[in-house]
Amino acid sequence: MADPQEVLSHRVQSALGAAFGPEYAETDPVIRPSQFADFQANAALALAKRLGRKPRDVAAEIVERLDVDDVVREVEISGPGFINLTLRDEWIAAQAQQILADPRAGVAVQEAQNIPIDYSAPNVAKEMHVGHLRTTVVGDALARTLEFLGHNVIRQNHIGDWGTPFGMLIEHLLDVGEHSEQADLLKSDPNAFYQGARAKFDGDEEFATRARRRVVALQGGDAETLRLWGELIELSKSYFNKIYRKLDVTLTDADLAGESSYNDALEGICRELEDKGIAEVSEGALCVFLDGFTGREGKPVPLIIRKSDGGYGYGTTDLATIKYRAEVLKADRILYVIGAPQHLHLEMVYGTAREAGWLDGGTTPIHVQIGNVLGSDGKILRTRSGAPIRLMALLDEAIERAGRVVAENRPDLDEATRAEIAREVGVGAVKYADLSVSHDNEYVFDFDRMLALNGNTGPYLQYATARIRSIFRKGGLTPEEATGPIRIAEPAERALALTLLGFGPVVEQVGDSLEPHRLCAYLFDLAQTFTSFYEHCPVLKAEDADVRASRLALTAATLRTLVLGLSLLGVSAPEQM
RNA sequence: GCACCCGUAGCUCAGUGGAUAGAGCACCGGACUUCUAAUCCGAUGGUCGCAGGUUCGAAUCCUGCCGGGUGCGCCA
């Protein structure tokens, strides 16, 4: 066990039990990183009141019973009753050695949960916007991280592939021709296709009539209409996959679970909720009213599950997803990586599912709220002309900007290599920018900042890995050949080794809290701690062979941790930059 | 009107009820015949929106207020 915080927790808890009786052995010892030592235990302050004694006396008694000599070099009571703990260099070195030998870099495998993750969810025949970009990137990072922690992740790309707009889209497809250039726009510039259809729908009464008739045919299961609908899906899949491949996102066609896949379940959902007395008819629509949900003028807010015209909306589909994921997929947690504005709606879906008993098997639905991406004006990101930004163009611009920097700094590399580096850096920068701020906050999109080589950015972390790889190339060995033994003498070595021990805990924390930005912050800290180490401690030019072997081992452990950490975020690390 | 989110350094953002609130950027001052300077070291910069409350201890928890954003019946 390499996590100092956990080791110290157990030791302090034992001391608490020994000092104050077994009923205190479960007390949280409140181990925290400290600015005066490596860690501090704050339990004494909280316990003082309960025990009716002075905090410093309580701390003294804990210290007296504390058995940590093998781990801790110095124990000191300070201030009102803080217990400062300074770890032994040898212990840190030994733990770092274990991390180096562990292919998982100190991340424990957890008891497997079934975790469906709903993320990305673009619409057929529509451009993905920066909001989709963020749920795609955050959802994918969570999928990768939870999978690595040992969970059974089931990716659910809930694409918008059903509804009334399809009448218009199908008629437009027929008008322009299935294999026309216009139809091919769906693969590259879907909004152009959509807007073409929309314009006709709004301006041409005859077209609008055809479109409405087509919706009826689609819902009625007309074979030719379904074939054309399938064609729209296929063309759109081509667009989605182009984006996913460029983004290096793990979603494939196998993960598609679009709205249409629940069509057959909707009628049953409504009947079940009506039979259970959860749904009732109001103003012609079948609705669920839940306690605690009121809107304007105190009127109860409905979750509409069947419209007054008999059709179904997203509320019904979302209920079908939660029932399916809970009962068929046997989900322990269901993650909805979806925009923050949909919070109220999702709460109503959860509440309805709970009342219906669908979550009784121990399923917890969780809304991973995605904040809006803003422009520098603080408004939702758009082009100067006010149009939504095309995602592919945005990625291409990031790659192009990265390419300019690479060309400037690495004229020695051939063009193909530079292009690949530019792609990894540009895409990595965009993804990292989405991941490094807490997901539920809005954040301001800024190319210059995300592509900077300084600061908490993707390129900075990638550069740190590229530099380390360069050390091994120059040294004529592979990172795997650097096995230590790790010894600690210099403060910079100590700081680096101690930071390495924090990887396992932070990955576990991301799995629990579903906050990838914590991993970003950790990796940035690790990279900074490494560059500082690298500045102060010669590695290849170390004074003797033992020191060199130890520093190479620390360097190898850092590289593996950085690359593994970035991979959990879905950010690649180029061999050179 | 009701609900949710947010308010921390000039800017962008972190912050597990614990000691003197942190990064990055920008600005200022240093370090390159380099182990990749695409870097590093240092300095400056704060009434944590305001006011109460709980607590030994509050940026963090509770209440009220101010300011900003979002949502609130047949779109998703």
From TrEMBL:
The gene is argS. Belongs to the class-I aminoacyl-tRNA synthetase family. Residues 6-87 form the Arginyl tRNA synthetase N-terminal domain. It comes from Marinactinospora thermotolerans DSM 45154. Transmembrane segments: none annotated. It catalyses: tRNA(Arg) + L-arginine + ATP = L-arginyl-tRNA(Arg) + AMP + diphosphate. Its EC number is 6.1.1.19. One of its GO terms (molecular function) is ATP binding. One of its GO terms (cellular component) is cytoplasm. This is Arginine--tRNA ligase.
